[in-house]
Amino acid sequence: MSWSSVAASAAVLLASCSQTDAFVAPAAFGARASSRAATRGTPLSVYMDAALILQNKGGGHGEIGFHMAKQLKDKGLDVTLMQDSAAKMDKNPFSSYGDLGVEVVTADLSNKEEVQSKVAGKSFTHVFDNFSKDVGTCTLAETAKTSWGVKSYVYVSSGGMYEASNAQPMKEDGATKATGQRGVEEHLDGLGLPWTSFRPQYIYGPKTNKRDYLDWFIDRVVRDRTCPLPGDGKQLASVTNCEDVAAMMTSVVGKEEAAAKQVFNCGTDDLVSYEDICSMVAKVAGKQAKTMTYDPKNFDLPKGSFPFRNTEFAVTPDKAKSILGWSPKNRLEADLPWYYQQYIDAGLDKKDIKFEADETIMG
Which pLDDT band, with edges at 50, 70 and 90, does 47 fall under? Predict the structure, then answer.
């Protein structure tokens, strides 16, 4: 049942009630329908929690909105997913939005006037902002505060803001760089919103449109090539299933007060090394894992030559586990069989790939 349907049904029911009568929301409005006691002369109002998801055009965070929408709907919220119009809607996860059963609208999310026009006359109790890259693209925060009085404004930030000099795995109080995402966190706090920020790291998932992190290893293993690993190859990384990433964010529902004005690292507690990934991929592919290590300081390699950082860069999710009661349900090793099968089904094992950086490293 959509937000507008709830409002229309409420209007019909309220028309038959006197202003002095108390109104109890019927079960048909869902588990989260509520009633507010009315005083004489004050209109009664019936509402259900409603979530607005602002979803970017793709990349590492491109799949998060799909899973958030599904999970929020399962929690009983009326969900609207506002998709940035720059997305390629014929590609995953966007092409799967029809399976969600939620309202989907598109807009240029960097255009404040257009975004405001899309939400005119609507109200939401929760906003999940998976778009804002800096304060200039944070287009609905003021509305969420002054017009909607939201219970929670969830911001999908980035673990990339942490300084590499932090002790590993990193905690939320670690030193950060002055990034656009950090600026948004400070902006939300300055507005006085009940904000919560999540800082994801490396993400994979069943509907991802950024396969770089794991495909780098598969590309080499299936072709019987050596995986050149920076450093000693034992650096740990937080490589997390997108369903778990979204589940941490949606766990704010029902825990809004505890989550308010908090930052949470958004990554699995199942840390893996670069060597681990290569070995796990080889096992799934029925191949022999072949690795070598190198000192990245000795080479002038182009960006993207390796999908992770040269140094260890991982986070601990202990704070989210303690405050939000979250825990990951997926593990990379268990997920690799279906992820690898997607790779094969897409014909990526037949793709012509140039391994120029590898050749430079291996001489």
Answer: low
